[in-house]
Specification:
Blueprint (H helix, E strand, L loop, with lengths): L1 H28 L9 H14 L1 H24 L6 H27 L3 H26 L9 H5 L8 H20 L16 H16 L13 E2 L3 H6 L4 E4 L4 E4 L5 H15 L5 H14 L3 H22 L1 H8 L4 H15 L5 H16 L12 H13 L3
Parallel strand pairs: 1-3
Antiparallel strand pairs: 2-3
Amino acid sequence: MQNNKETFHNQDNKLTTGNIIKVTFLRLIHLKRLWMLLLFPISLLLVQLAKVNMTFAESVYADGFYKIYSQIFSSVTGLVPFSVAEAGILSGFIVIPAALIIWVIRIMKARGERSFYVFRGIINLLCLGSLIYFMLMLGCGINYYREPFSYFADLTIQDSSVDELYGLCSELASRASEARAQLTSFDDEGVYQLPMSQNELEELCLKAYKTAGEEYPVFTGIYPASKAVHFSTFMSRTELTGIFVPFTMEANVNTEASDYSIASTICHEQAHLRGFIREDEANYISYLVCTASDSYDLQYSGLMEALILAGNKLYAGSTELYYEARALYSDGVINDLRANSAYWSQFRDTKISNTTDKLNDSYLKANNQSDGVQSYGRMVDLLLAEYRQKHQVR
């Protein structure tokens, strides 16, 4: 009799467990958030469509949906005077641990419903991941497959000689030195400093985009100013001067970087906001926009960034020609470059900067930029194409 009772008791337990599984499953499939899981395959489908169909990538998406989406979304977040993205990251240090603690407490207290809370938590994470990926693709991922900017600028990218690169560097050095001679604001050590507030600089950059938009209509649109990152010093530790956040449609700028570089950074991040996500193109667009301005401060910023990248490539090709071109740098240009190098040297080869560099490199390679962080330097190919077009070099 005792054994029979034990057998009956075990069967009853199995039945109870079965009911628990059934009830848990029914409760889970009735969660209203489950539809969010569909966003992941939808994102993959849209990216694949953009990869194989340029008409969809450019006309339907980049120049169609994204043009409207980016202006509306950025205008809303633009109403907030601070970076919504930065505030979100900071709040995440509180919200995420708190959510995990609450989840664990509910599981511990639930007893008979523990399995439900465990699986609901997993589903919540999957839904959040699906939403994040969808917003990432919607905000920038698909634009990696749009027409290259060389298409809009009518530039032909091709292999160039070291002599052409030397000619480009010499021209940029002369132009940067001439623009530097027109500047009037310097610190006690003769290093360039911005003669205006961050807000005034942002307005100048937006005005420069309007000017450049007269020649390149693809730049036109109603977009808000970039956001200054409050914790810019920490951002410098990651060796980042700016970042475009597709989840909030904000162009964020490190205001602790060298003053001459800030305008160029603003215009670079604004290029991302306007749908040009490739780093080399954003660099070149920044150069175009800055040099289209009637402000010598913006012109100098754009020319200096172009000169640094072109000079680095010339140095790799011919140190002799590099030093010949460098002889054209004015004392003021050299002074600013030295101050810039001194500033960034304190952040190089640290755990934070190296980790950020690896993450950025992996992200770029995963998004149709096989060169990774080296893609920033491909701006020189666009500069050389412009140089050949300007001088009719064959």
